[in-house]
Amino acid sequence: MSAPAVIKREPLLAQLRQTRVWDVIVIGGGATGLGIAVDAAQRGFSTALIEARDFASGTSSRSTKLIHGGVRYLAQGNVKLVREALSERALLLTNAPALVKPLKLIVPCYRTLEREFLRVGLGVYDALAGSRGIGDTRWLSRAETIAQLPGVRAHGLLGGVAYWDAQFNDARLAIALMRTAARQSAVVVNYIEVDRIELEAGTVSALMARDVKTGERFRLCAKVVFNATGVWADDVRRHAHGAAPSLTTISRGSHIVVPASFMPGASGMMIPRTTDGRVLFAIPWEHYLMVGTTDVAAPGPTWQPEASAAEIEYIIDTARDYLQSPISRGDVLTTFAGLRPLFSPTAAKATKTISREHAIVIEHGNLVTVVGGKWTTYRKMALDALDQAVKVGLLDARPCRTAGLKLEVDDSIETACHEAETAAFAGEGTDSITEFVALAINHEQAHYADDVIARRLRVASLSDYAVSRVRPIVSAALEAAKKKGHSNEWP
Question: C-alpha angle with apex 442: 11 to 452, nearest 5 degrees?
């Protein structure tokens, strides 16, 4: 295997400085924006992507870590979304097998006929996957449920149902998409923020952007501008029209992380019925147990969403009925929350009832906003967005080949990442952390400590204590790289 490509900031900025008209400019470096950049560049369009903070620093690094069709959406009757997501699940398992893995999920049953009812519903879920299914849904006896889901509450347990979905490392998959876009010759740069949109004859003529690190300004022009900024989509739209009505309702999903001893097996658990009609997952994640998610209305976008005390208690209370050893507040190692940009122009419904299907809105002639959707369907969202731009004449018709495109995942970097994570949690092995920081700088556009701790390594979403321990090591490694001149052109 060839050495992973070095990605340096200064050559990327030099291309942004050029006076030119790009075919495509993407605003937003989360799953949606990166997917659009990959698709556009793969079709041969000159493509630039700019992200105001770090890649996946918003919603795309704060998910439940599941690549799934959405059992919950099937219960809502949204067969189209489930079938589409299951198809995309199969593609991700093929195109990024190092980061996306099959995961068995078990639903423990405590009510009469609950197992029979769930077996039918999950059987439909399997049927929608067709030949792309991962594994069969099957009945589990009481003994089998306890054996395959150690830690489950045995009292009153009647049995269970096992089914399959997939689990992934969300932030690292985003980094793989960034590297894939770069491999396709896209210019993909983080810490570049759009703060003004210029219109000429009602059409977007230029984006005014600022380098967050240095203050340098750029004027960027393109045939089509894709607004893929998630919960900030309406803010970006209002750079062009200050009174633009909202397209999104923002929902917050929160998670808690506890020791794996509460449920030490390899399978995850799905809780199918909560007090307010949601589903809840408890899944093994990097040698810990992650439990979530909530779905509550959030007042607006923020870079640092936090789980509320009420959400934490809700998760603990719900899980208590399903675990042999109840979780207490003192068992929680950390919490994290993400904001979902739900397409809801009327903003009138409870967020848990708003569809997760995506929407594409074209304004000002060539500003294409993509909202809604979910991580699993990022590729289909990108395909639809590009095809809509073609349909209205903004771009030439060219085939999409991303269904068979292997994502840029380097085994040596992933191994180094795993070793550094292990050292971070074990409190030893400083050298492996320092070595990974160098890789993150040179190959993954990491600039600051949180870029490494939260999104290249996954320490921040797993243990507050580990973060406090590893931050000085990462900061020292970044400072050393800066002094050596290998720090991705620090200011």
Answer: 120
Q: What integer pLDDT is reported at residue 488 of this predicted model? A: 55
| Cβ neighbours, 10 Å, residue 97 | 13
Quote the CA–CA distance of 488 and 57 in Å, as a whole number.
Answer: 19
Nearest-angstrom CA–CA distance, 27 and 369: 10
Q: Which residue has the tokens 């983080």?
A: 190
Task: Decide the pairing of beta strands 367-371 and 217-227.
Answer: parallel
**In which domain, by residue range, is 324 found?**
84-167+251-340
Of the two residues 78 and 178, the one the predictor is more confident about is 178
Of 340, 356, 380, which closes a domain?
A: 340
Query: Is residue 139 in some structural domain?
Result: yes
Place of tokens 């002639």: 365
Residue 72 Rama label (left phi>0; alpha psi -120 to 50; beta)? alpha
Shared domain for 41 and 25, answered yes or no, is yes
Looking at the structure, do residues 111 and 230 belong to the same domain, yes or no? no
Q: What is the pLDDT of residue 350?
A: 45
* Of 303, 321, 340, the domain-final residue: 340
**Residue 189: strand, helix, or coil:** strand
Provide the number of structural domains found in the chain: 3
Q: Tens digit of pLDDT for each residue in 350-375? A: 444 444 588 999 999 999 999 999 99
Q: What is the pTM of this model?
A: 0.94
Judge if 206 and 242 occupy the same domain: yes
What is residue 109's predicted lDDT score, i.e. its pLDDT? 95
Residues 6 or more apart in contact with residue 432 via CB below 8 angstroms: 416, 419, 420, 422, 423
pLDDT at 482: 79
